[in-house]
Amino acid sequence: MQNAAQIEFWNSDTARNWVTHDALMEAMLSPLGEAVLNALEPAQGLRALDVGCGCGHPTLSLATRVGAAGSVMGVDVSQPMLAVAQALAESHHAEAAPITFLQADAQTHAFETESFDLVFSRFGVMFFEDPLAAFRNMHAAMTPTGRMAFCCWQPRAVNPFMMMPAKAALELLPPPPELPPRAPGPFAFEEPEYVERILQDAGFSEITISALSHPLVFGQGLTVEDIVERLVQIGPIAQMVREAPNDLKQPVRDRVIDAVRPFCTSADGMTVEGAFWQVTASA
To answer: Over the range 88-120, which residues count as b (16 or more CB within 10 Å of their CB) and which as e?
Structure first.
């Protein structure tokens, strides 16, 4: 099965923990999705595809933008996340486009040819085992005048949300296995030249990759201890802490608390700068 590891991962406890803390994650990520939607400029009446739609919040925003005359499909491999998305869609207002959610792999799913005017993704396209095949599949599903926009992470080294907790945890824990460069995961698309080459080979044109900076605000209203507790469930150190010996789990938490405390306030939670790529292209 293509992408079997990712399909298993996004239907595991990780996905269920994400669902539990959906509101927390959405508060942090929503501004980035809205920025990319602004770049895509969805017009009323268009047909749109949201790739890696997760819990469906950006899908609903996309549906509002294309209006009742348009249509939106959200596709994801995660059943727990899609259950949240479906519940959200049932309450969206009448002026928005009808939404269909589909549990499928966008790399291999047989979309109807030329069925979408827009393809959008908020951090949902870095997990393909064969990204070229995935983007060729998406390209085939787009109309000749279709447009695509997505965002992805710049390197881990310039993203303290990922680096800072991990560095603190590594003071006590062994490093996780090193992933091959460009392996499926959050940082698979950290190299803009690599992303551009994939899109060109997949048939896209007018490719623009621009730096997008935005503060990541995580855990507004929570104590620093509560913020770290969420990080060890859904953040970049979740697997490290889950696999740590029991006698190290709390000491690791304590190290992470010390590391993130300077970036936390009682009102705003943890605020760190984030660095991303915003990618647009034409079919």
So the answer is: bbeebeeebbebebebebbbeeebeeeebbbbb
